[in-house]
Amino acid sequence: MSETRDLLILGGGLVGMTLALTAARKGISSYVVDRADPAELTAEGFDGRATAISTASWNLFTNIGLAETLEPHGCHISKIAVTDQMKPGQIDFVPEAHDGTLGRMFANRTLRVTLFDAARKEKLIDWRSKADVVARHRDAHGVAANLADGSELKARLMIAAEGRGSPTREEAGVKIAKWEYSHRAIIAGLMHEKPHDGVAWEIFYPAGPFALLPLNDDADGKHRSALVWTVSERDGDGVLKLSDRAFQAEVEKRMGGLYGTVTPVGNRMSYPLGFHHTAKITGERLALVGDSAHGIHPIAGQGLNLGLRDVGALVEVLTDGMRLGLDIGDAQLLDRYEKWRGLDSFMVALATDGLTRLFGVPGASASAVRRLGMAGVQRIEPLKRWFMDEARGVSGDVPELMKG
Questions:
Q1: Weakest mean pLDDT among 169-183, 223-237, 372-386
Q2: What is the dihedral of CA 246, 360, 107, 49, to 10 degrees?
Q3: If 0-12 CB within 10 Å is exposed, 13-18 middle and 19+ buried, where does residue 331 land?
Q4: Counting CB atoms within 10 angstroms of each CB, which of 3, 5, 258, 351 has the fewest?
Q5: How high does pLDDT run on average in the chain?
Q6: What is the pTM of this model?
Q7: From CA 18, how far away is CA 10, in angstroms rounded?
Q8: In sequence order, what are the residues at sequence separation of 6 or more whose Cβ sits closer than 8 angstroms to the Cβ of residue 66?
Q9: Angstrom distance (rounded) from CA 189 to CA 194
Q10: Helix 14-25 to helix 108-121 angle, to the nearest 10 degrees?
């Protein structure tokens, strides 16, 4: 018979595993249940995506002991440049010297390997990979999950961390607002002639944003970036099927000679883009984190960071409650988490949705109005500072573990 643990985390991805590790650092035990095979998730070529880790998220990784392992693999973001079709009116977000960087870029594979290695060494985490959940139970006394192998895992609080299609969320009957953008994100790796100097570019075209994200040079000193190119759904398959030479030509045309000659590397990937946000992020002995609660457009690179803010807030709430002698699944604690994260994540989701629609308006007049507004932001330092603090995740009510 298995022991009753504090948390039953269903979903062992980047957010779920970070939650397990963060909770463990505070003495909170957990089961982590995931259908995937970790060997497949960390295999070369499985996931070619790269993720921007904000300042606040980096503070979280630092405070749970992962920074030393991750640091050599992260490329510092020294500036974010935002432009409408490479025309005049660009915004340059550059932090003050005392602020450090605007974040760090990591390959998703690097984040997974680091998290999984740490989880294997943590005694407070019982990780069940390649496991299918066949039944879930929640009541006033506790929670449980029955696995396909016949085992039953019991805990005091269930966490839905399974991503956008969360079956735990669906089974709980949580209402959700969602829509599709009819866009696809094309993901590719690039080698290029000129260095990127740590600049992350967000170039807006009517069909969608074209993002160039800086990565560390490879072992041979070749300059690298990650490309996230948003195209219409009807064009997605065609872009994936382009020859390397044709793909290179299309990419170079949209880059406007920024980095000189470009060479695509690795496999191209794509995924559909959509929006969703739940009406609530808690239930009876249930909390939602990450994409199980909210899924946003990657336009501002905030998806994972939003999930990590959920982690920081939830662990702080649970730790405070346990210190007072409350049950870790107490409704008062979950209500505090709901109020803390529900509004903040909703406002970020609305902002990214608004930006997507604003920059998607076609025509020269719309472009001129956008560039006029961007030029105004460039000149108003307090406004630029606000945008940078939002991007760094240091504005608003920041969890203690995500402070410097």
A1: 372-386
A2: -60
A3: middle
A4: 3
A5: 88
A6: 0.91
A7: 13
A8: 21, 114, 115, 118
A9: 15
A10: 40
Beta bridge partners, 32, equal 9, 127
Q: Are the beta carbons of 161 and 292 closer than 8 angstroms? A: yes
| Average pLDDT estimate for 272-297 | 90
Whether 362 has a pLDDT exceeding 70, the answer reads: no
Higher pLDDT, 177 or 283: 283
Phi, psi values for residue 362, rounded to 5°:
-80, 170
Q: 235, 233, 213: which is closest to 224 by C-alpha?
A: 213
Q: Whose CA is closest to 128, among 144, 155, 151? A: 151
Specify which residues 84 forms β-bridges with. Answer: 204
pLDDT-derived band at 97 (thresholds 50, 70, 90) equals confident
How far the first Cα of the chain sits from its last, in Å, is: 42
Is the CB of residue 191 less than 8 Å from the CB of residue 224? Answer: yes
CB atoms within 10 A of CB 64: 21
Identify the three-state secondary structure at position 262: strand
Burial (CB < 10 A; 0-12, 13-18, 19+), residue 223, is buried
Domain borders along the chain are 4-178+275-402
Q: Which of 120, 104, 108, 106 is nearest to 43 (CA)?
A: 108
Residues linked to residue 143 through DSSP beta bridges, in sequence order: 138, 155
Nearest to 73 by CA among 203, 224, 294, 211: 224
pLDDT at 7 over 90: yes
Q: Give the highest mean pLDDT range of 34-43, 282-291, 343-352.
A: 282-291
